[in-house]
Automatic annotation (TrEMBL):
Residues 4-26 form the Zinc-ribbon domain. The keyword Lipid metabolism does not apply. Residues 241-387 form the DUF4767 domain. This is DUF4767 domain-containing protein. It holds the Pfam family Zn_Ribbon_1. The chain crosses the membrane at residues 54-73. Residues 214-240 are annotated as: Disordered. InterPro entries: DUF4767, Zinc_ribbon_dom.
Length: 390
């Protein structure tokens, strides 16, 4: 049987492996059949490859799910076991809900110590020394005011003068006491940043471990009320006082809110030392040293020589007996210093003829200190409300 080269077509011998004409290799048809894979084998191999790829994909997907679940488990476990809330310098809403009540108590007291004065300062000292016990109540009477815990909040009493309410979600603290109320404070945006900047985490953790929180009896302070009521019938000259420490605390609270709203940080005169403005005045001594002029705000009276001279004095003990005096009796001083002398704002809260008046000093130079009644209606109304509601 003749055989032909599949490349050049020339006749070759059946036994030739290479063409004697073109030199290319020649494979017999039988060999070709043996070398060519069967159609069924090709199909089978394709199915095996496809199944292998599917199996590998499933295995990879399972491993990813297992690793992801393990990561979430570890994160949740670590969060649950963590005893330091906000330890990374930031505080989230989720962390706020988990704050232990001792830790929140320490934060509340340290913040109030800085913002609200003496009564809270004593509590802060007890906290640092490890001798503070706080009692929780559903309601408690602070003097003439009964405070109740509502909407899932909890009332904590420091003493018979001050305490605080914690909202159900721990996001807000309301400072209360023997007056209507202090203002609300946000744990996230106000209290926590203040505490982190003023105290080390180690100190705060040590202090909150030392304090005790117990449940008070609902009628515990009831026996005191009859004696307190009877004392009201023995009023003396003190009832003629126009200003009290309670009112002062309430004004401090309001000015904190006012400063936050105006994006200004006000410092208040605490009764010792002096309060220095950016323009150089040192209050309260400046009240007796400076020459004060009262501006009425009229545009045709800009010359200090055309303004009325007034007398001011530091007199937080002012009584109704001082009402006949023409002196402005200053009971509270708050000052904000900007970046320059031109930016200082000093509020002098006074009683003049027995009536509350809020004066503003923004004087930067000259022979006189020019003051005028504040045009801020919100500030005026709040001072009048505080002055008339002791």
């Amino acid at each position: 049987m003749n055989k032909f080269c599949p490349h050049c077509g020339k006749p070759i011998k059946p036994t030739d492996s290479f063409c004697s004409h073109c030199g290319k290799p020649v494979v017999s048809s039988e060999s070709e059949k043996q070398l060519m894979p069967k159609r069924s084998e090709i199909h089978s191999n394709r199915l095996k490859s496809k199944k292998r790829n599917i199996i590998i994909g499933v295995i990879v997907a399972v491993l990813v799910l297992i690793m992801g679940g393990w990561g979430l488990y570890q994160h949740g476990r670590n969060s649950a076991e963590s005893t330091v809330i906000g330890g990374n310098g930031r505080l989230t809403n989720a962390e706020i809900k988990k704050i232990p009540r001792k830790q929140l108590a320490a934060w509340a007291i340290l913040y109030a110590d800085k913002k609200y004065g003496k009564k809270w300062g004593e509590a802060a000292d007890d906290l640092r020394s490890g001798h503070l016990t706080i009692k929780s109540y559903s309601k408690y009477r602070f003097g003439d005011y009964e405070i109740s815990a509502t909407d899932g909040s909890t009332l904590y009493v420091i003493n018979d003068q001050v305490g605080y309410l914690v909202s159900k979600d721990n996001k807000e603290i309301t400072y209360v006491g023997n007056k209507s109320s202090y203002s609300n404070r946000s744990v996230l945006s106000q209290i926590y940043p203040e505490i982190k900047s003023e105290n080390t985490e180690k100190n705060v953790n040590t202090w909150n471990d030392n304090l005790s929180i117990v449940t008070g009896k609902s009628d515990e302070n009831a026996s005191d009320q009859s004696s307190k009521t009877s004392k009201k019938t023995k009023k003396t000259v003190s009832e003629d006082k126009l200003w009290s420490s309670n009112q002062n605390d309430e004004l401090i609270s309001y000015m904190d809110e006012f400063g936050d709203k105006m994006h200004q940080s006000y410092e208040h005169y605490t009764g010792s030392g002096s309060l220095t403005t950016a323009a150089g005045q040192e209050y309260p001594s400046w009240l007796s040293q400076g020459r004060f002029k009262l501006s009425t705000g009229d545009h045709d009276s800009r010359d200090p020589e055309d303004m009325s001279s007034i007398d001011l004095k530091w007199n937080p003990q002012v009584t109704s007996e001082d009402s006949d005096d023409d002196t402005y009796n200053v009971v509270a001083i708050f000052n904000y210093n900007g970046k320059s002398a031109e930016q200082h704002i000093t509020y002098l809260f006074c009683f003049y003829h027995g009536e509350p008046v809020a004066l503003v000093d923004q004087t930067t130079n000259g022979d006189y200190t020019i003051v005028h009644a504040t045009a801020n209606k919100d500030l005026t109304s709040h001072f009048e409300e505080i002055a008339n509601n002791d």
